[in-house]
Amino acid sequence: MKIRPLADRVVIKNVEAEETTKSGIILTGSAKEKPQVCEVVAVGPGGFVDGNQVEMTVKVGDRVLIAKYAGTEVKVDGDECTIVRQSDILAVVE
């Protein structure tokens, strides 16, 4: 199955978080925070949202930084993805 987001929505997939800290401490699953750096999987067409024209500035394959509790988590074919509005994306990681 394939997801095609509507309007200014973007489908992102979490990038695996590191399992050790800089000092070498290994983190358990419950101690890890939700990663905020994600990869863009699909991008909506943009258009009019709340009466304003929205142009999409991210593209598939970009690595982005998102707000901590942004979006809606969904499972598609066993893969966990998150659907966010483009305005919830804080920056593109280069």
Helical fraction equals under 10%
What is the molecular shape? globular
H/E element order: EEEEEEEE
Which structural class fits the helix and strand makeup? mainly beta
Spatial strand sequence of the major β-sheet: 6-7-1-2-5-8
Average pLDDT, rounded to a whole number, is 86
Low-confidence stretches: none
State Rg: 15 Å
Overall strand count:
8
Describe the structure.
The structure is a single chain. By secondary structure, the protein is mainly β. Helices cover 0% and strands 43% of the residues. It has no helices and 8 strands. The chain has strands at 9-14, 37-43, 47-49, 52-54, 63-66, 72-76, 79-85, 89-93. A hairpin with a 2-residue loop joins strand 3 (47-49) and strand 4 (52-54). The radius of gyration is 15 Å and the shape is globular. The mean pLDDT is 86.
Summary of the model, kept short:
The protein is mostly beta strands and 94 residues long. It is built from no helices and 8 strands.
List the helices and strands and how they pair.
Layout: E1 9-14, E2 37-43, E3 47-49, E4 52-54, E5 63-66, E6 72-76, E7 79-85, E8 89-93
Antiparallel strand pairs: 1-2, 1-7, 2-5, 3-4, 5-8, 6-7
